[in-house]
Amino acid sequence: ISLIDRLALFASRNENGVPKEIDLFAIFSKQISTIVTTRDDVPVEDVVSLQVSLINLALKCYPEQVDYVDTVLTFTEQRLQSHCAKRLPAHSAISKEVLRLMTIPIDHYNNVLTVLQLKGFRPVLQKLHFEHRRDISLHLLQNALDNKTLIKTQDEVNSLLETAEPLIIDQEDQPADCEDPEEFEEDQSLVGKIINLFKADTPDIQYMVLCSARKHFGLGGELRIRFTLPPVIFAAFSLVFQYSQLAEEDDRWHKKCTKIFQFCHQTIASLAKAEMATLALRLFVQGALVANRVEFEQNETVAYEFFTQAFSLFEEEVSDSRAQLATISLLIGAFERMTCFNDENRDPLRNQLVLASSKLMKKPDQCRAVLLSSHLFWSSKLRENPEEECRESQRVVECLRKALRTAGQCMDPATQIELFVDVLNKYLVYYELGNEEITISVLKQVIEKIRELSKQCDDKYDDFVRRHFQNTLVHIRHRQEVATEQNYSGLVF
C-alpha cells in the first residue's frame, strides 16, 4: 500500500508523470489480484485498502482511464460478494474502507455523470448498510449541486435517482426510527434541490425528464413527496413559459401546454390525496396564476379548473379558523390578479368567494374577509378587456355594509372598534378612488360609531388601534386641506 501511494504521489508531482511504456496500474492490479486469490488469510478490509490505494494510483497517474477505476470497483464488488452475500454491517472496518473507496471518484471527477458511467459503482454501493448508502447518496447529490452538473436526459435522471435510491424510497433494511425529523427534512430538501439541475436541451426532452423524476419521487411515500414533488411541479410551470416563447416555432405548443397542466394537476392531486391539503391548495392557486399568464388556447379552462380545485380544498379540508382567513385571503388576492376569465366564469367564482368569506367561523374573520372580497368588484378584470378594472360601485358598497353589520355583531367592544376602524379605512380607500356610492354621511356615521364605542370602553383598548384611528382622522383633515375632488368636503367630526 505504501509503495502504491508513493508512486501515485510521485506521478502527481512529476510533470512528466509515469513513462507511457510502464503501465503501473496493470502491474499492481495483477499483483494484488494474485495475492488475494492465492492467500485466504488476507482480511477483506485489507483487500479494500489495497483497492483504495490502487484507485488513487489510477486517478493520479491515468486520470483519463475511467475503465481503470471501474476495474477496481468491479474487483471490490466481487471480493465483497464472496465475503458477505448480503450487506456489510454498519460502522465495521470493512464498511469504513468501502466508504473511502466510494467517495474518491466522486471527489476526483466532480461530475456525477462520470461517476454514474462506472458500472461497478452501484453494485459496490448496494453492499453497504442503509446508513452508509444514504451517506454516499447525499455526498453524490451535494457534489452535483456544488458543481452545477446539469442532467439533460431521461437516462441520466433515471441513473442518478436509482443510485440515490436510499434517499428517495423506503429501503428494506431501513430502521423504522432511523432518522430524527430535522435530519430527514434536510436530506429531502437536498433531494428537492436536485430538480434545479434537470435541464434538457429542448422543452420536449425536458418534459420527459420531469416525467421520469415524478415517477421516481412518487414512490417516496407521504413523508417524502411533500419535499420532492413541489419542485417538479414548479419546473413544469417554468416549462409552460418556455413553450410560450417558442410559439412561432412550434405550432403544437398550445396542446403541449395543456398536457403539462394535466401533468401538474395529477401531481398536485396526489399531494391532496396524501393529506397535504394546504400544500396542494397553494399549488393549485399557483397553477391557475400560471395559466392566466400564458395565453394558450385552453388557458381559461385550465385556470378555472385549477382555481375551483383550490376552492374545493378550502371548503373541504381547511377547518382551523386562522388557516381559513389566511387561505381565503390568498384565494381573493389570486383571483383579483387574474384576467383570463369571461363573465360566465368570473361571476360564479367571485360570488362563491364572497359567500365563503361571510361563512368563516369567527365574526372578526368574516368581517376582514368580506372587506377583502370587496376588491373583486372594483379591481378585477375580464378577458375581453384585461386593462380595464370592473368598478362595480354598488357591489363594493354591499360588501362594506356587510362588513359593518358583521363588526357590529361582535360581543367585545374593543374588537368592534378595531373592525370599525378597518372598515372606515376601506370606505376611505374607495371614496378616494371615486366610488360615487359612498357618501359623506356614511363616513360620518362610522366615525361617530367608533367614538361611541370608545366611550363605552373608557378609551381602554389596544393602543395600536387608537393610533390607527387617530392617524385616519389626521389623513382626512389633510385631504380636506387639499383641493381635490375627494377632499371630504362637508365631513365634520
Care to describe what's here?
This protein is 70% helix and 1% strand. It has 493 residues and is mainly alpha-helical. It has a two-stranded antiparallel ribbon. Helix 19 packs antiparallel against helix 20 (393-408), helix 19 packs parallel to helix 21 (413-433) and helix 21 packs parallel to helix 23. The longest helix has 24 residues, at 222-245. The termini are far apart. The mean pLDDT is 91.
Tell me the number of strands.
2
Estimated radius of gyration: 33 Å
| Spatial ordering of strands, largest sheet | 1-2
Uncertain segments are none
Mean pLDDT: 91
DSSP strand content: under 5%
Q: What distance lies between the first and last C-alpha atoms, to the nearest angstrom?
A: 94 Å
Major beta sheet, specifics? 2 strands, antiparallel
Topology:
Layout: H1 2-13, H2 24-38, H3 44-61, H4 66-83, H5 93-109, H6 112-116, H7 121-126, H8 130-146, H9 154-163, H10 165-168, H11 181-193, H12 203-217, H13 222-245, H14 253-273, H15 277-293, H16 299-317, H17 321-337, H18 343-357, H19 363-373, E1 381-382, E2 385-389, H20 393-408, H21 413-433, H22 440-456, H23 463-480
Helix pairs in contact: 1-3, 2-3, 3-4, 3-5, 5-8, 8-11, 9-12, 11-13, 12-13, 13-14, 13-15, 14-15, 14-16, 15-16, 15-17, 16-17, 16-18, 17-18, 17-19, 18-19, 19-20, 19-21, 20-21, 21-22, 21-23
Task: Identify the notable features of this structure and list them briefly.
493 residues, mainly alpha, 2 strands, 70% helix
